Structures are given as structure tokens and as C-alpha cells.
Amino acid sequence: MLGAPVEGYNHTSAAINRFTVNGAGGPNLGPYGGGGGQVCCGSVPRYWRPGLRAIVEWEKDPNPGASVGWPPHGTDGWREAYKKHAANYTRHRVVVEIPQYQEAGTLKVHFLP
Length: 113
Fold this sequence. Notes:
This protein has 113 residues and is mostly beta strands. It is 10% helix and 46% strand. The strands form two sheets. A four-stranded antiparallel sheet has the order 3-2-5-6, with no helix packed on it. A three-stranded mixed sheet has the order 4-1-7, with no helix packed on it.
């Protein structure tokens, strides 16, 4: 197995609060963002083989701009607003095939609408 950086691209209006590829964490991705940073490290076999798959899990904030106008950070009012907001987060899991590669590289994940 070889170490492979994890990189994400968010093509949606939601925020991707966190994601993992086979348990290796990826960066937080704002709406329509990503590609600017990598997190180390996932792992992939040195040589690709048919049927190679990855488990991608993520948490999505469907309304990332909701905190505008909240009470000051760290206050009881802020904590209450955050608790209500976070109740709308959704969690997802998908198993995807890893495309054929000649040499191991970055694990790139694209989040689509």
C-alpha cells in the first residue's frame, strides 16, 4: 500500500463539513470550492486491480450561510442557534469504484449536486 493525499472538490451550494475516503480525512469544503488543499494520507495499492473500491463518507450543511446574524460566538445564544442549525446536517455514505491508474496519486473526490 502507498500513501495518497486526499483532495476534495465541491460542486454544490452546500458546505461539506467533513469527509473521509476509507477513513482518511479530507478538508472542509465550502460551497462551490475545493481543490486548494490536500490532507495526508489515505492509502491505495501500488498496482490498480479490477473491482478496487473506496468508501466515501461525508457530512453536509445544506445552509452554510445561516450563521449570519447569530449571537456572538461562544455565548449560550450562539450554542443554541448552532444546535438548531446542526440538526439539519445530513450524513452520507457511498461505495465508489476507483478508476484505473498507472501509478498511485491523489485520492480526488468530487461532490456533485
